[in-house]
Amino acid sequence: FGGLDGRTALSDTWEWDGTSWIQRTPPSAPPGRAFHAMAWDAARQRIVLFGGLDGRTALSDTWEWDGTTWAQPTPLAAPSARESHAMGWDAGRQRVVLFGGARSRTNLSDTWEWDGSAWTQRAMTTPPTRTGHVLSWDATRQRVVLFGGYDANIRQLSDTWEWDGTSWTQALPASEPPARNSHSLSWDGARQRVVLFGGYASTLFSDLWEWDGSAWLARAPVLAPSPRFNQALAWDATRQLVLLVGGRDGQTVLSDTWSWDGAN
User: Fold this and answer.
1) Statement: residue 55 has pLDDT above 80
2) What is the three-class DSSP state of 43?
3) Average pLDDT of the chain?
4) In angstroms, rounded to a whole number, what is the distance separating the alpha carbons of residues 147 and 137?
5) What average pLDDT does this structure show over 12-40?
6) 59 with 47: CB under 8 angstroms?
7) What is the pLDDT of residue 6?
8) Are 237 and 219 in contact (CB under 8 A)?
Protein backbone atom coordinates (compact mmCIF):
# COMPACT_ATOMS: atom_id res chain seq x y z
CA PHE A 1 0.00 0.00 0.00
CA GLY A 2 0.99 3.57 -0.81
CA GLY A 3 4.44 5.10 -0.68
CA LEU A 4 6.01 7.90 -2.69
CA ASP A 5 6.20 8.12 -6.48
CA GLY A 6 8.69 10.94 -6.69
CA ARG A 7 6.93 13.52 -4.49
CA THR A 8 3.39 12.17 -4.75
CA ALA A 9 1.90 10.21 -1.83
CA LEU A 10 0.09 7.18 -3.26
CA SER A 11 -3.04 5.37 -2.06
CA ASP A 12 -3.02 2.28 -4.27
CA THR A 13 -3.33 -1.29 -2.98
CA TRP A 14 -1.47 -4.19 -4.59
CA GLU A 15 -1.13 -7.92 -3.85
CA TRP A 16 1.60 -10.38 -4.86
CA ASP A 17 0.57 -13.99 -5.59
CA GLY A 18 4.07 -15.38 -6.13
CA THR A 19 4.04 -14.71 -9.87
CA SER A 20 2.56 -11.30 -10.51
CA TRP A 21 1.38 -8.09 -8.87
CA ILE A 22 -2.39 -7.48 -8.95
CA GLN A 23 -3.84 -4.04 -8.27
CA ARG A 24 -6.91 -4.08 -6.06
CA THR A 25 -9.67 -1.48 -6.21
CA PRO A 26 -11.37 -1.67 -2.79
CA PRO A 27 -14.49 0.40 -2.05
CA SER A 28 -12.57 2.29 0.64
CA ALA A 29 -8.88 2.90 1.28
CA PRO A 30 -6.62 5.05 3.45
CA PRO A 31 -5.65 8.47 2.07
CA GLY A 32 -2.37 8.57 0.19
CA ARG A 33 0.74 8.48 2.35
CA ALA A 34 4.36 7.49 2.76
CA PHE A 35 6.62 6.58 5.69
CA HIS A 36 3.76 4.63 7.30
CA ALA A 37 4.11 1.17 8.88
CA MET A 38 2.25 -2.07 8.24
CA ALA A 39 2.19 -5.47 9.95
CA TRP A 40 0.33 -8.77 9.57
CA ASP A 41 -2.12 -9.60 12.37
CA ALA A 42 -2.34 -13.40 12.17
CA ALA A 43 -4.91 -13.74 14.97
CA ARG A 44 -7.45 -11.52 13.24
CA GLN A 45 -6.31 -12.22 9.66
CA ARG A 46 -5.75 -8.55 8.87
CA ILE A 47 -3.00 -6.29 7.62
CA VAL A 48 -2.73 -3.37 10.07
CA LEU A 49 -1.55 0.06 8.92
CA PHE A 50 -0.76 3.05 11.12
CA GLY A 51 0.21 6.68 10.52
CA GLY A 52 2.67 8.03 8.00
CA LEU A 53 3.02 11.32 6.20
CA ASP A 54 0.25 12.73 4.00
CA GLY A 55 2.06 15.43 2.07
CA ARG A 56 3.28 17.57 4.97
CA THR A 57 0.96 16.25 7.70
CA ALA A 58 1.82 13.40 10.08
CA LEU A 59 -1.09 10.98 10.54
CA SER A 60 -2.42 8.97 13.50
CA ASP A 61 -5.07 6.82 11.83
CA THR A 62 -5.37 3.03 12.03
CA TRP A 63 -6.54 0.94 9.06
CA GLU A 64 -7.04 -2.79 8.46
CA TRP A 65 -7.04 -4.74 5.19
CA ASP A 66 -9.08 -7.98 5.15
CA GLY A 67 -8.34 -9.00 1.57
CA THR A 68 -11.38 -7.22 0.17
CA THR A 69 -11.46 -3.72 1.61
CA TRP A 70 -9.81 -1.30 3.99
CA ALA A 71 -11.69 -0.44 7.21
CA GLN A 72 -10.81 2.29 9.69
CA PRO A 73 -11.18 1.35 13.37
CA THR A 74 -11.75 4.23 15.78
CA PRO A 75 -10.03 3.24 19.05
CA LEU A 76 -10.44 5.53 22.06
CA ALA A 77 -6.67 5.92 22.38
CA ALA A 78 -3.92 5.66 19.78
CA PRO A 79 -0.28 6.54 19.29
CA SER A 80 0.37 10.17 18.40
CA ALA A 81 0.70 11.16 14.74
CA ARG A 82 4.06 10.08 13.34
CA GLU A 83 6.13 8.90 10.41
CA SER A 84 9.06 6.53 9.88
CA HIS A 85 8.03 4.35 12.82
CA ALA A 86 8.12 0.54 12.79
CA MET A 87 5.55 -2.19 13.47
CA GLY A 88 5.83 -5.94 13.88
CA TRP A 89 3.59 -8.88 14.77
CA ASP A 90 4.07 -10.47 18.20
CA ALA A 91 2.62 -13.95 17.67
CA GLY A 92 3.26 -15.08 21.22
CA ARG A 93 1.03 -12.37 22.66
CA GLN A 94 -1.27 -11.86 19.66
CA ARG A 95 -0.44 -8.17 19.35
CA VAL A 96 0.90 -5.79 16.74
CA VAL A 97 3.82 -3.87 18.30
CA LEU A 98 4.68 -0.29 17.31
CA PHE A 99 7.84 1.53 18.34
CA GLY A 100 9.20 5.05 17.87
CA GLY A 101 9.15 7.19 14.75
CA ALA A 102 9.13 10.97 14.43
CA ARG A 103 6.75 13.90 14.52
CA SER A 104 7.73 17.49 13.70
CA ARG A 105 11.37 16.39 13.65
CA THR A 106 11.10 15.04 17.19
CA ASN A 107 12.14 11.41 17.54
CA LEU A 108 9.97 9.16 19.71
CA SER A 109 10.68 6.13 21.91
CA ASP A 110 7.22 4.94 22.93
CA THR A 111 5.97 1.34 22.64
CA TRP A 112 2.34 0.54 21.76
CA GLU A 113 0.40 -2.70 21.19
CA TRP A 114 -2.71 -3.21 19.02
CA ASP A 115 -5.03 -6.09 20.00
CA GLY A 116 -7.56 -5.64 17.20
CA SER A 117 -9.76 -3.16 19.03
CA ALA A 118 -7.54 -0.93 21.18
CA TRP A 119 -4.07 0.58 21.28
CA THR A 120 -2.32 0.24 24.66
CA GLN A 121 0.84 2.11 25.52
CA ARG A 122 3.42 0.06 27.35
CA ALA A 123 5.48 1.94 29.96
CA MET A 124 8.95 0.53 30.49
CA THR A 125 12.61 1.11 29.77
CA THR A 126 12.87 1.42 26.01
CA PRO A 127 15.52 1.67 23.32
CA PRO A 128 16.74 5.24 22.72
CA THR A 129 14.54 7.49 20.58
CA ARG A 130 14.84 6.81 16.89
CA THR A 131 13.31 6.85 13.46
CA GLY A 132 14.04 4.93 10.26
CA HIS A 133 14.41 1.65 12.22
CA VAL A 134 12.76 -1.73 11.58
CA LEU A 135 10.97 -4.46 13.54
CA SER A 136 10.44 -8.15 12.82
CA TRP A 137 8.99 -11.13 14.69
CA ASP A 138 11.40 -13.94 15.58
CA ALA A 139 9.13 -16.98 15.88
CA THR A 140 11.79 -19.37 17.19
CA ARG A 141 12.81 -17.16 20.10
CA GLN A 142 9.38 -15.54 20.59
CA ARG A 143 10.76 -12.02 20.38
CA VAL A 144 10.18 -8.88 18.33
CA VAL A 145 13.59 -7.79 16.98
CA LEU A 146 14.56 -4.13 16.40
CA PHE A 147 17.64 -2.95 14.53
CA GLY A 148 19.20 0.43 13.74
CA GLY A 149 17.66 3.71 12.63
CA TYR A 150 18.92 7.15 13.56
CA ASP A 151 18.57 9.31 16.64
CA ALA A 152 17.60 12.96 17.22
CA ASN A 153 21.09 14.07 16.18
CA ILE A 154 20.83 12.16 12.88
CA ARG A 155 23.40 9.74 14.23
CA GLN A 156 23.10 6.34 12.58
CA LEU A 157 22.53 3.44 14.97
CA SER A 158 23.61 -0.21 14.84
CA ASP A 159 22.05 -1.57 18.02
CA THR A 160 19.90 -4.69 18.28
CA TRP A 161 16.98 -4.90 20.76
CA GLU A 162 14.40 -7.58 21.56
CA TRP A 163 10.87 -7.18 22.95
CA ASP A 164 9.48 -10.14 24.92
CA GLY A 165 6.05 -8.66 25.63
CA THR A 166 7.13 -7.16 28.94
CA SER A 167 10.43 -5.38 28.42
CA TRP A 168 13.06 -4.39 25.87
CA THR A 169 16.50 -5.99 26.18
CA GLN A 170 19.56 -4.93 24.21
CA ALA A 171 21.41 -7.78 22.54
CA LEU A 172 25.19 -7.45 22.40
CA PRO A 173 26.44 -9.66 19.55
CA ALA A 174 30.16 -9.92 18.78
CA SER A 175 29.60 -8.45 15.31
CA GLU A 176 26.70 -6.60 13.72
CA PRO A 177 25.69 -4.84 10.50
CA PRO A 178 27.07 -1.31 10.06
CA ALA A 179 24.90 1.51 11.41
CA ARG A 180 22.08 2.53 9.05
CA ASN A 181 18.49 3.68 8.61
CA SER A 182 15.68 3.03 6.12
CA HIS A 183 16.70 -0.63 5.78
CA SER A 184 14.31 -3.59 5.86
CA LEU A 185 13.85 -6.59 8.11
CA SER A 186 11.79 -9.77 7.78
CA TRP A 187 11.34 -13.15 9.44
CA ASP A 188 12.47 -16.15 7.36
CA GLY A 189 10.41 -19.07 8.64
CA ALA A 190 12.14 -21.75 6.57
CA ARG A 191 15.58 -20.96 7.96
CA GLN A 192 14.51 -19.62 11.37
CA ARG A 193 16.33 -16.34 10.87
CA VAL A 194 15.55 -12.64 10.80
CA VAL A 195 16.79 -11.21 7.48
CA LEU A 196 18.13 -7.65 7.02
CA PHE A 197 18.80 -5.96 3.69
CA GLY A 198 20.11 -2.60 2.50
CA GLY A 199 19.50 0.85 3.93
CA TYR A 200 21.39 4.10 4.08
CA ALA A 201 24.08 5.84 6.15
CA SER A 202 26.85 7.78 4.40
CA THR A 203 26.38 5.36 1.52
CA LEU A 204 23.70 3.06 0.13
CA PHE A 205 23.89 -0.57 1.23
CA SER A 206 23.13 -3.79 -0.64
CA ASP A 207 24.35 -6.15 2.07
CA LEU A 208 22.40 -9.10 3.43
CA TRP A 209 22.50 -10.20 7.08
CA GLU A 210 20.73 -12.85 9.15
CA TRP A 211 20.05 -12.81 12.91
CA ASP A 212 19.90 -16.19 14.64
CA GLY A 213 19.11 -14.88 18.12
CA SER A 214 22.72 -14.52 19.24
CA ALA A 215 24.76 -13.38 16.23
CA TRP A 216 24.43 -11.41 13.01
CA LEU A 217 25.72 -13.47 10.06
CA ALA A 218 26.81 -11.72 6.85
CA ARG A 219 25.62 -13.47 3.71
CA ALA A 220 27.19 -13.02 0.27
CA PRO A 221 24.93 -14.34 -2.51
CA VAL A 222 26.30 -14.20 -6.05
CA LEU A 223 23.34 -12.10 -7.21
CA ALA A 224 21.61 -9.45 -5.09
CA PRO A 225 19.40 -6.39 -5.50
CA SER A 226 21.20 -3.11 -6.18
CA PRO A 227 22.01 -0.78 -3.24
CA ARG A 228 18.85 0.92 -1.98
CA PHE A 229 16.84 2.22 0.97
CA ASN A 230 13.15 2.41 1.94
CA GLN A 231 12.43 -0.94 0.25
CA ALA A 232 9.79 -3.36 1.54
CA LEU A 233 10.66 -6.84 2.81
CA ALA A 234 8.15 -9.55 3.81
CA TRP A 235 7.98 -13.29 4.47
CA ASP A 236 5.92 -15.30 1.97
CA ALA A 237 5.00 -18.40 3.98
CA THR A 238 3.22 -20.16 1.09
CA ARG A 239 6.27 -20.07 -1.17
CA GLN A 240 8.83 -20.12 1.67
CA LEU A 241 10.62 -17.03 0.37
CA VAL A 242 11.52 -13.57 1.63
CA LEU A 243 10.20 -11.00 -0.84
CA LEU A 244 11.79 -7.60 -1.52
CA VAL A 245 10.07 -4.81 -3.46
CA GLY A 246 11.18 -1.39 -4.68
CA GLY A 247 12.91 1.30 -2.65
CA ARG A 248 15.06 4.23 -3.74
CA ASP A 249 18.46 4.15 -5.42
CA GLY A 250 19.70 7.69 -4.89
CA GLN A 251 17.09 9.82 -6.69
CA THR A 252 15.52 6.90 -8.58
CA VAL A 253 12.35 5.20 -7.33
CA LEU A 254 12.60 1.46 -8.01
CA SER A 255 9.86 -1.04 -8.91
CA ASP A 256 11.75 -4.35 -9.04
CA THR A 257 10.76 -7.50 -7.15
CA TRP A 258 13.25 -9.98 -5.67
CA SER A 259 12.96 -13.19 -3.63
CA TRP A 260 15.48 -14.76 -1.22
CA ASP A 261 15.45 -18.51 -0.60
CA GLY A 262 18.29 -18.65 1.90
CA ALA A 263 20.98 -19.22 -0.74
CA ASN A 264 20.16 -17.11 -3.80
Assistant:
1) yes
2) coil
3) 95
4) 12
5) 96
6) no
7) 79
8) no
